[in-house]
Backbone:
C-alpha cells in the first residue's frame, strides 16, 4: 500500500473518531499535511547528506461559543495512540474556550463540499540519480544542490462532513554548477529540473544546457558602478519579484492594517503598467484549490490588470472583520498559484531590445527597504551579464539594487516575454511545499543599483 | 531533567495549585516512548546507529486591537535515526515510533547509507559522534503552571490598548510564544544525553498611519525579544508602560523627517547589533558554508580556510565569542546534536579571525578548529553547522560618551529590514527609528533609517564598543539555512557600538 493511502486512511478514521466525540455547539476542522520524502544534498557532485522523512502533521481548529483554539501535532500513525492524543487536546481546547475572550471575526465551520485531486508521478530510482552524478563528476562538473522527491498529501475534513484531499508525487533537483573564472573568482549557473515524471534523457538535456553556460562565466567579470541601468529579468528573477507581492502586498488585511506595500496603488496615487497582468490561477494544479477552512477558491482570480489592483486576497476572517465579501484566500492572504501573463517580446529579440544593460538570471535575499513606497533591495546572483548593443560582453560582479515595484512593474516596464515558465516551489522549511508560479521575463528601463 | 520523561503524562490539564484553571501548562496525552529500548531494537541494523528523540511544545498567544487573534500550540514528537555504513551516515526521520516503524526507518536509512557510500562527499566516522553522557536542564524560572491562561490573555489585550495611544494607531499587536523542548540523544557507541530547555518570546508592535505616511515601531524589533527561562521575562507593569512608549514613537515617526542620504557616524543599539552580528559575522564564519555545502541555497562565504589566524576582520576593539554558556540567552546548551560538549570560544579576538563556526564533521573535513554547533531544527532534519549564541563582548564606552564623540551621526534602533549577498559582503539593513546626533547631542528622531556597507571595511570602522550598561541579549527563532531547509533559534548579546563614516539613507520623500 502506498504511504499516501496509509496516511489518507489514518486521517479519515481519526476524523470520524474525533467528530463523534464533539458536543452540541462545538465544531472542528482537521487538516493533514503528510509527506514521505527523500532529501539528498550534494556538494562537489557528491552526496553530502541524505535524509528520508516520513511525517504526518495534523492541525485541529476547534470552535465553540464564538471562540477558537488551534492545535497541531505529529501523528504516530497508530490510530489508537493518535486518537488519545487528539482527544486530550480537544479536552484542553474546551477548557481554553471557557476562559478566552470572544472572537467576533470567527468564520463558521461549514461544509464547502468535496474536492479531490490525485497527481501520481514517476520518481527516479536513487541509484540512477547517483550514477548520473558520477558521470558529471567525471566531466569535472562541480554541482551543489538538493534533490527532493516523494509523495505529499494535504487533506481537510470538518465536523460538518466536508472532505477534501490533494496528493502529488513529484521531485525537484535544485542545483548550482560552479566554475572559476580567469581571475580566480567563483561563478555559477543555477538550474532546476522539476516535475511529476522523471526522465533521465530530459535530466541530461537540462544538465547539458546549464553546463553550456559555464564557459562564458569563465571570462573576466565586469565591475559596474552604482547607477541606473536597463535590465532584463529572466523568469526566475521575475519569480523572486512576484514573491514580494505575497509579503504584505496583495493581502487585504495587510492593506487595512498598515502593512501593505501596495497602499499607494490601492489609493490611486500610482498606476502600474498595462503590460503587467497578475492572477491566481489554480489551473497550474501544483497546489490544492481548497484552503485551511476547506473553502474552494475559483480556478482563477485576477489580481492586477490595466495598471490597477483588481482584487486583493481576502480570507473569510478578514471579510468578517471589515464587512466585505471574501474570495476564499487562505489565512495568510498570500498568492498560492501566481501566474503572470506573457507579452510579446520574442526570446530571440531579448538581447537586441535590451541593447546596452544587464541580463539578470537570478536574484538573492530580497527585503523591503521602504515598504510604503514598495521599495525593496536585493542582490544579483549566478549568471548575470553585461550586454552592449545586443551582445553579451561579460559576466558581472554581483550588484545590489534598491528599487520600487511601482517602477519595475510601472512606468519603467518596457516589455514582457512571449513565453512564461513554470517554476515549481522548492521550499522545505518544516515540510516540502506544494505550489509554483508561472512567469515570463521582463525588460525594464532604468533600475537603480546602489552597491 | 526533572522526572522521568518516558512516562505517559496525565491527559488532563493542570487544575490544582493556586491559579485559576486552566493554567498555561498544556499536558497532552503524548504517545509513550522509551528511547533506550528503541535504540536496543535498532542498533544492530548498521555499523553504528544514533537516535535523537525530540519532544517540543510551542504555544503562540496573540491579541490585536483589543481582541484575541491566535491561541494555539504545536506539539512536535518524533525521532531522527542515524546509520553509519561504509563511512557514510544516512538519516531517517519518523514520528511512527512503533517497533515496526522504527525498524522500517532504520533499515531504509541503512540501505541508503550503503547506496550513497560509493558517492559520498567525505568519509565519516564515529570520531564525529564522540561518546558523551550527560544531562542539561536550562533555566526555567517561573514556569507555565504558575499562571492562568486567562491572566495572560488579559495582559495581551491590555498591551494592545496601551499601544493604541491614538486613533492613528491602526494596528496594535501583542504576542508571546512559550516553548518547552526535550531532546534525548542515544548512540550505539554509548552516548546518552538528555537536554531540556524552556524558552519565551515576545513581540509588542504598533503601526501608525496618517497624512499619507505609515510607520511601525515595536519593542526592540518584531522577533528580538526571546530568551531561555520562564514567565519572569514578563514584567507586565513594565511591559504595559513600555507599550505606551512604543505607540508614542510610532505616532512621532509619522511627523519625523526622513533619514538623510549621506555618510556619517552611526551608533547601533544592541537590538540592531544582533542583526549586524548575525548576518556579517555569524553566517560567513560557518564552516559548512566555507566548505561549499550551502552554495546552492544561502550561499558561500568570502572567508577562506587560510583566513583563520590571519585575517584582521575588524578593529582591535572587536571581540566575538561563541557562548553556549551565557545564562538565559536563547541558544544556550551543553551538547550539540552530534554529542560534542559545548564550550565558550573566541571567534574573533581583538579584530583577528581565530576560529570558525563548525561542528566535528566540518572540523575534520577542513582540518580546522571549530565549536559545538552541529544542530538541527527538529526531529525531521539532520544536524548542520548553525549559529547558536554569537556575542560581541562589551567594551568600556558609556552610551553618552559615544554620542559625545559624534559631530554628525545617527543612532539606530530595532531591526526592520535585512539583506546581504551570498558571500556575506555587501549588506543593506534598515531600522525602525533613528535619532539624529549633532555636535555630541541627540536632537530629533528620523524615519526610515537605513545603512549599507561591506563587511570587513564596516567592522574596521568600529570606533567604540559600549560597556555592560549598553548591552543586552536578544535572539531570533528564524535563522534559515540548509537543504532541506531548517529554521533555528539563535541568540546574540551585544553592547551598543559606534561606527565611523557609514553610508546611510532614508525612504522616498
Ligand atoms: Zn540566519
Residues:
Amino acid at each position: 500500500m502506498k504511504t499516501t493511502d496509509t496516511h489518507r486512511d489514518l486521517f479519515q478514521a481519526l476524523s470520524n473518531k474525533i467528530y463523534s466525540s464533539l458536543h452540541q455547539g462545538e465544531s472542528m476542522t482537521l487538516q493533514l499535511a503528510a509527506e514521505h520524502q527523500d532529501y539528498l544534498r550534494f556538494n562537489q557532485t557528491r552526496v553530502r547528506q541524505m535524509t528520508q522523512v516520513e511525517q504526518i502533521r495534523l492541525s485541529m481548529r476547534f470552535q465553540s461559543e464564538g471562540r477558537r483554539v488551534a492545535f497541531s501535532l505529529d501523528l504516530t500513525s497508530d490510530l489508537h495512540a493518535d486518537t488519545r492524543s487528539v482527544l486530550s487536546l480537544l479536552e484542553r481546547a474546551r477548557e481554553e474556550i471557557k476562559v478566552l475572550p470572544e472572537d467576533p471575526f470567527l468564520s463558521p465551520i461549514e461544509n464547502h463540499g468535496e474536492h479531490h485531486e490525485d497527481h501520481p508521478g514517476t520518481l527516479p530510482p536513487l541509484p540512477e540519480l547517483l550514477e548520473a552524478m558520477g558521470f558529471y563528476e567525471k566531466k569535472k562538473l562541480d554541482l551543489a544542490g538538493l534533490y527532493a522527491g516523494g509523495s505529499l498529501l494535504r487533506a481537510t475534513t470538518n465536523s460538518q462532513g466536508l472532505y477534501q484531499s490533494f496528493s502529488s508525487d513529484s521531485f525537484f533537483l535544485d542545483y548550482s554548477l560552479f566554475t572559476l573564472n580567469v581571475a580566480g573568482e567563483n561563478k555559477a549557473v543555477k538550474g532546476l529540473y522539476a516535475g511529476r515524471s522523471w526522465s533521465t534523457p530530459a535530466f541530461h538535456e537540462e544538465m547539458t544546457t546549464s553546463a553550456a553556460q559555464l564557459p562564458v562565466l569563465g571570462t573576466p567579470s565586469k565591475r559596474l558602478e552604482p547607477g541606473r541601468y536597463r535590465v532584463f529579468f529572466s523568469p526566475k528573477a521575475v519569480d523572486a519579484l512576484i514573491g514580494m507581492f505575497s509579503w504584505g502586498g496583495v493581502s487585504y488585511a495587510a492593506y487595512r492594517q498598515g502593512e501593505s506595500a501596495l497602499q499607494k496603488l490601492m489609493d490611486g496615487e500610482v498606476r502600474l503598467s498595462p503590460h503587467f497582468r497578475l492572477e491566481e490561477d489554480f489551473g497550474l494544479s501544483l497546489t490544492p484549490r481548497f484552503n485551511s477552512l476547506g473553502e474552494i477558491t475559483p480556478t482563477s482570480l485576477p489580481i492586477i490588470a490595466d495598471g490597477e489592483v483588481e482584487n486583493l486576497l481576502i480570507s473569510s476572517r478578514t471579510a468578517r472583520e471589515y464587512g466585505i465579501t471574501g474570495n476564499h484566500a487562505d489565512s495568510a492572504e498570500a498568492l498560492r498559484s501566481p501566474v503572470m501573463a506573457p507579452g510579446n517580446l520574442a526570446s530571440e529579440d531579448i538581447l537586441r531590445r535590451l541593447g546596452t544593460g544587464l541580463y539578470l538570471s537570478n536574484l538573492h535575499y530580497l527585503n523591503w527597504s521602504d515598504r510604503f513606497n514598495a521599495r525593496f533591495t536585493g542582490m544579483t546572483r549566478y549568471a548575470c551579464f553585461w550586454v552592449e548593443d545586443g551582445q553579451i560582453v561579460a559576466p558581472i560582479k554581483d550588484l545590489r539594487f534598491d528599487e520600487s515595484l511601482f517602477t519595475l512593474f510601472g512606468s519603467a516596464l518596457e516589455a514582457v516575454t512571449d513565453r512564461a515558465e513554470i517554476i515549481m516551489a522548492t521550499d522545505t522549511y518544516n515540510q516540502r511545499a506544494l505550489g509554483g508560479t508561472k512567469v515570463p521575463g521582463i525588460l525594464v528601463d532604468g533600475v537603480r543599483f546602489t552597491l | 531533567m526533572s522526572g522521568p520523561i518516558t512516562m505517559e503524562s496525565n491527559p488532563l490539564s493542570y487544575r490544582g495549585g493556586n491559579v485559576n484553571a486552566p493554567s498555561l501548562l498544556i499536558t497532552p496525552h503524548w504517545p509513550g516512548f522509551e528511547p533506550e529500548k528503541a535504540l536496543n531494537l535498532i542498533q544492530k541494523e548498521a555499523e553504528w546507529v544514533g537516535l535523537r528523540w525530540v519532544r517540543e511544545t510551542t504555544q503562540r498567544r496573540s491579541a490585536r486591537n483589543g481582541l484575541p487573534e491566535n491561541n494555539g500550540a504545536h506539539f512536535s514528537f518524533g525521532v531522527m535515526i542515524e546509520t553509519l555504513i561504509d563511512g557514510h551516515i544516512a538519516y531517517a526521520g519518523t514520528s511512527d515510533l512503533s517497533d515496526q516503524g522504527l525498524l522500517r526507518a532504520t533499515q531504509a536509512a541503512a540501505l541508503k547509507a550503503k547506496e550513497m557510500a560509493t558517492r559520498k562527499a567525505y568519509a565519516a566516522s564515529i570520531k564525529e559522534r564522540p561518546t558523551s553522557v550527560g544531562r542539561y536542564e536550562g533555566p526555567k524560572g517561573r514556569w507555565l503552571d504558575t499562571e492562568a491562561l486567562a491572566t495572560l490573555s488579559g495582559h495581551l489585550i491590555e498591551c494592545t490598548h496601551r499601544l493604541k495611544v491614538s486613533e492613528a494607531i491602526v494596528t496594535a499587536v501583542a504576542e508571546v510564544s512559550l516553548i518547552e523542548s526535550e531532546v534525548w540523544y542515544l548512540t550505539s557507541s554509548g552516548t546518552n544525553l538528555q537536554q531540556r530547555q524552556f524558552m519565551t518570546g515576545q513581540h509588542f508592535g504598533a503601526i501608525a498611519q496618517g497624512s499619507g505616511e505609515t510607520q511601525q515601531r515595536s519593542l526592540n524589533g518584531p522577533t528580538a525579544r526571546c530568551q531561555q527561562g520562564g514567565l519572569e521575562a514578563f514584567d507586565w507593569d513594565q511591559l504595559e508602560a513600555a507599550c505606551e512608549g512604543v505607540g508614542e514613537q510610532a505616532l512621532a515617526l509619522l511627523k519625523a523627517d526622513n533619514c538623510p542620504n549621506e555618510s556619517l557616524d552611526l551608533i547601533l543599539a544592541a537590538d540592531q547589533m544582533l542583526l549586524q552580528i548575525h548576518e556579517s559575522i555569524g553566517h560567513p564564519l560557518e564552516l559548512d558554508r566555507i566548505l561549499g555545502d550551502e552554495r546552492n541555497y544561502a550561499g558561500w562565504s568570502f572567508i577562506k580556510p587560510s583566513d583563520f589566524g590571519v585575517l584582521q576582520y575588524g578593529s582591535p576593539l572587536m571581540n566575538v565569542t561563541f557562548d553556549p554558556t551565557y545564562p538565559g540567552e536563547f541558544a544556550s546548551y551543553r551538547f550539540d546534536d552530534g554529542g560534542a560538549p559545548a564550550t565558550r570560544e573566541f571567534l574573533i579576538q581583538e579584530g583577528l579571525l581565530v576560529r570558525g563556526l563548525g561542528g566535528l564533521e566540518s572540523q575534520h573535513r577542513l582540518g580546522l578548529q571549530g565549536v559545538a554547533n552541529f544542530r538541527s531544527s527538529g526531529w525531521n532534519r539532520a544536524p548542520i553547522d548553525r549559529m547558536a549564541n554569537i556575542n560581541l563582548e562589551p567594551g568600556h564606552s558609556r552610551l553618552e560618551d559615544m554620542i559625545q564623540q559624534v559631530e554628525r551621526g545617527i543612532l539606530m534602533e530595532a531591526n526592520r529590514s535585512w539583506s546581504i549577498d551570498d558571500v556575506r559582503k555587501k549588506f543593506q539593513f534598515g531600522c525602525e527609528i533613528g535619532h539624529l546626533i549633532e555636535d555630541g547631542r541627540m536632537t530629533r528622531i528620523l524615519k526610515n533609517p537605513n545603512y549599507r556597507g561591506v563587511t570587513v571595511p564596516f567592522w574596521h570602522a568600529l570606533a567604540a564598543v559600549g560597556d555592560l550598561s549598553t548591552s543586552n541579549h536578544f535572539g531570533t527563532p528564524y535563522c534559515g539555512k540548509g537543504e532541506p531547509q531548517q529554521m533555528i533559534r539563535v541568540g546574540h548579546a551585544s553592547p551598543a557600538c559606534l561606527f565611523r563614516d557609514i553610508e546611510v539613507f532614508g525612504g522616498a520623500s
Notes: Residues B 278, 283, 479 surround zinc ion (CB under 6 Å). The longest helix of chain A spans residues 79-99. Chain A touches chain B through 95 residues (CB under 8 Å).
